[in-house]
Design the sequence.
């Protein structure tokens, strides 16, 4: 799949302690063309992590071991990676932006989720958002809403901005994405006027709600909902 190829090109691991990175399965070498180890490894080491190539916990590279295991290309790339004596976690980072990396952000989100760096977003068909027949700014807005990057009272407080967590409209409940766009009692009155109605069922988050909507409604309802969500946020 083309997306997977792009993810392989765009997402890379930055080595911290090396504990979370598998030597032969993860893209951790500083080389854009192939960030994977090329040397064949002994089968008993297939599951080994990069941390085992260090002299001791958070120590320097074990150069004799690296010489023994890898070809010259891999050796040079490994030894060019600076190591920290402080215990840092290995992290996925987004590589250069030249090859359409931005457009496969959903794939990146998937990788982050896989490695527990953000809470899982279940069942969202991300590419569907970009195929909705609505203006680009609305597609973008929906994408941001579902990625939980909208500045709601709750998310701003998470960033330690001193504001009340209550919804500024109803002043009754905490304002997260679901509340701001769908479940606030004042917003529900608007939904009630549409064919979608104000029913939110068992949705516990805006992604949950969107997933329910997009799996039970036709595209004209979904597009209308997208436009309405955008309008609600403008007011
Ligand atoms: Zn409210």
Sequence:
């Amino acid at each position: 799949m083309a997306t997977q190829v792009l993810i392989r090109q765009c997402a890379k691991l930055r080595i911290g302690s090396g504990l979370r990175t598998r030597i032969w399965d993860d893209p951790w070498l500083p080389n854009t063309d192939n960030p994977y180890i090329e040397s064949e490894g002994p089968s008993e080491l297939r599951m080994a992590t990069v941390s085992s190539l260090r002299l001791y916990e958070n120590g320097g590279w074990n150069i004799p071991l690296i010489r023994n295991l890898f070809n010259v290309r891999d050796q040079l790339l490994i030894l060019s990676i600076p190591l920290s004596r402080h215990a840092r976690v290995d992290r996925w980072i987004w590589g250069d932006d030249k090859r359409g990396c931005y457009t496969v952000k959903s794939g990146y989100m998937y990788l982050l989720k896989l490695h527990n760096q953000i809470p899982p977003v279940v069942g969202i068909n991300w590419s569907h958002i970009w195929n909705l027949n609505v203006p680009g700014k609305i597609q973008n807005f929906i994408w941001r809403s579902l990625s939980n990057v909208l500045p709601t009272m709750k998310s701003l407080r998470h960033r330690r901005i001193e504001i009340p967590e209550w919804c500024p409209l109803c002043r009754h409940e905490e304002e997260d994405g679901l509340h701001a766009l769908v479940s606030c009692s004042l917003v529900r009155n608007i939904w009630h006027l549409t064919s979608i109605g104000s029913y939110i069922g068992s949705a516990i988050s805006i992604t949950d709600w969107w997933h329910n909507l997009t799996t039970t409604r036709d595209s004209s309802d979904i597009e209308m909902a997208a436009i309405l969500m955008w309008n609600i946020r403008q007011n």
Summary: Residues 167, 169-170, 172-173, 179, 184 surround zinc ion (CB under 6 Å). The first strand starts at residue 11 and ends at 14.
